[in-house]
Every structure is written in structure tokens, then in C-alpha cells.
């Protein structure tokens, strides 16, 4: 009964496809039944223009083990239909069967501009899996037309291209790096692929990308980062050349690539990086802030070959005080005593800005120089004491920091209370002032709390008894006095509670 029923089904296209499904599920079918179903599929093809039913019919033949399935797949892959993806799937099925026509079918489909780029990319990847010599150029062409692909698809094309062993691949990747019509991220992906292949030309290409206006500034910094990788052949020399080029012509370049390039030189394990930094520091035609940036990186490297040029430029009084401080700080990191001498000279320079003198004094303290406490104390006793200097002096445990810290608390609090924006209800501007007040006051009060000497206790007592001070600050000072066991703390706290 079942046999007769299957024989009847084999004479209709729907029944034939059902028999094919049974065969795919492992059903034991008579050869005659298989042949009859196959003949029905061949003799009664579906009349559609989209290719979907034809693809299903070819799949049914393949399930039945009919050799004519390959011909159906090849014919569908070569025939224009409304659903282009059915042609791609037919070519892939042809490849799965091991048919020699698959390569030509895939190459034709990957080059057909009438097919959506996403499906052409599928065909190109299938062709690349076969290591076909036509695949590299097709993949490159798809990347250059990447506005038809998503970013992920275009990157996948580059990755597939880079993985191929064809001798044309390096040249094609170099072409993508230099193609200004290709998106910046994709050009960098191609460059990274060249780096992984150990390409000797990629360093120069990356240095060129990082200059001018070929890329967005974020992509320029990424190009510098790739250049700084230890596996980039010739990367250090190209990086040094790039930094020198930007330093000599700063107006033609953006600042971002410079900062990334100079930092990468400072972090490079290649000893040649020091030579490039020394060259920039000693070049008088380079802007002083850039020379100072290079000097800081020399100090970070700890390479004493940079000591002489740092000392020479730092001692030059024609150099701005800010640059001298940065040079001297770098020199001090190299444990060279000339660095602290220059810093001490800047601290004592009456013509230097107070902020720069403070930076120099703090750098002296960081270097552990014995002159640092006096230098910091001198900056704390002026009419406008420096909070930075007072905080650093407190960290050194110097009693001279106590009174300036109390003065700074009072001034910051008064400035906040008298803020006109606060009185006028300008909440946005008032909040900015509140942040400044909080930073100033909290830093000073915390520093006072860490000082255990009598001078700090006296300063806290003065704050607790100051009627003009904000209530919360007076409470904080009184509670710190109580914590220290000072007899003035409890009465002050009780008076504030009342």
C-alpha cells in the first residue's frame, strides 16, 4: 500500500520533493522510486522568475543523489532572476558538490554589479576559500565600493583578502591604504593587515596617513598607534620622522597626532627613539612647547643620553620659564642634579609667573630636593598663597603650611558667599562656583587634618571660632579639634549646635 502510494507521489512535483525530503532524512527508498522522482523534477520544472522554487527543485535532486542536480545549480547560477541570493546559494551548492564549474560561477556572480554587494561579498569569500587567483582583485574592488556594504562587511572583505596567500595581496592592501576614496577605518584595517604580514613599506604609508588632512584626527592618532607597535617593520624611524615633521611644520598639522606620536616615542623599547627625541629637543626651530613635550618623554624613558641637551635648553634663559620647568623636571627624573638647580632658579625668578614658580617648587619636592620646603613656604606666604604649594608643603609635614591653608579656606568661603551668580539665582554658574569652592575647601581642610603639630591645631581653632565662616566648615573644624583632644573643640561645637 505504501509502495503504491509513493509511486503515485513520484509522478507529481510536490510528491517528488516529498520523496526527496524522505531520502534526506535517511529513508531507505528503492532506486526506481528515486529515479522516478528525479525525472519528475527534471521534466516538470517550476515556472517562476524569482529562482526560489528552482533552487528548491535542485536541492531535491541533490537529496535524491541525482547527478543532474549539479547542472540545475549551474544553470540557476548563470540565469538572471529576481532573487539574486538564490543564484549565490546555487553556486555555493555547486561548490559543495565539488563541481569544477563552481569557481567560474562564483567569480561571475562576485563581479556582477546588478547583484547586491552583500551577496557579491558572499560569493567573493567562497571564491577566496578556494584560493582562486581572481578572488584578491574582486575583494579589493568590493572594499573600494564599500558604500554598498556595511562597515563590518567591508572589514570582513579586508580580513579575507589579508588571509590569502596570493602574491598580489600585499600590493592590493597597499593600494587600499593609499586610496583616498576608501573610508579611514578601512584604510587602517588594511595597514594593520600589512603589519601582520611584516610588510616593509607599511611604516611609510602610515606616517603619510597621519599627516595632513587625509584622515579624521581620531584616525590619525590610530595610525600613529599602529606605527608604534613593536611588530611594525621600521616603525620607530617612521615615527621619529613623523614627529620631527610635525614639530617643524606645526601649523600644517593637528595637535592630536603630535601628542600620540611623541608619547609613542617615549614608550618605545627601541633605543633609536631616544635619538629622535634628542633631535627634537635640540632643534631651535621647533616650538618650545613641543620641545618641552619631547623633553618630558626623554625623562620618562630614563635614558641618560638625553641629559646634556635637557640641561643646555633648561639653562637657557631665552627659553620660556614654563619650558625650562618641564626640561628641568625631565632632567631631575634622570637623577641629574642640574635639573633641581634649574628648578630652584625658576622658583627664585621674580619675573616668572606664580603658577610656573609653584610648578617648579612642586617638582623640587617630587625630586626630594632639600630646598623644596623653603621654596614652597615662600609661595605660601605671599598675598595670594598658592593652594598647590600649601598642599604639597603639608604633605611634607611642614608646620608652615597650617596658616596659609586656613587663609585659603577663609578666602574660598568668602568668595563663594559673595558670588553674585549665587545671589541672582544663576544656578548653572553658581554650581560651577560651588564645585570650585568644594575643591578648594575640602583639599585645604583635609591637609590641615593630616598635620599633627600645634600650628595646625591653632589654625583649626581659628576657623572654628570665625563667625564669618560657613556653618558647616566651622563644625568640621570643631569636630577635628575634638578628635585631637583639644579643649577648645567641645565648647565650639556646643556653641554651633545652639
Mean pLDDT: 83
- Counting DSSP E segments of at least 2 residues, the number of strands comes to 0
Taking the sheet with the most strands, its summary is: none
Helix share bin: over 70%
Rg is 38 Å
Beta-sheet strand percentage? Answer: under 5%
Contiguous low-pLDDT stretches (5 residues minimum) are none
**Coarse morphology:** elongated
Structural class: mainly alpha
What is the number of helices?
Answer: 30
Terminal Cα separation, in Å?
106 Å
The H-and-E topology, N to C, reads as: HHHHHHHHHHHHHHHHHHHHHHHHHHHHHH
Give a written overview of the molecule:
- The chain is mainly α and 498 residues long.
- The chain is built from 30 helices and no strands.
- It has helices spanning 2-9, 13-24, 31-43, 52-63, 68-78, 84-96, 102-111, 117-129, 135-144, 151-162, 169-178, 184-196, 202-209, 217-227, 235-248, 255-267, 272-281, 288-301, 307-315, 321-333, 337-347, 354-366, 372-380, 387-395, 402-417, 420-423, 427-450, 454-464, 471-484, 489-497.
- α15 packs parallel to α17 (272-281).
- The chain is elongated, with a radius of gyration of 38 Å.
- The relative contact order is 0.03.
Descriptors:
single chain; 498 residues; mainly alpha; 0% strand; elongated
Short structural summary:
This protein is mainly α and 498 residues long.
List the helices and strands and how they pair.
Blueprint: H1 2-9, H2 13-24, H3 31-43, H4 52-63, H5 68-78, H6 84-96, H7 102-111, H8 117-129, H9 135-144, H10 151-162, H11 169-178, H12 184-196, H13 202-209, H14 217-227, H15 235-248, H16 255-267, H17 272-281, H18 288-301, H19 307-315, H20 321-333, H21 337-347, H22 354-366, H23 372-380, H24 387-395, H25 402-417, H26 420-423, H27 427-450, H28 454-464, H29 471-484, H30 489-497
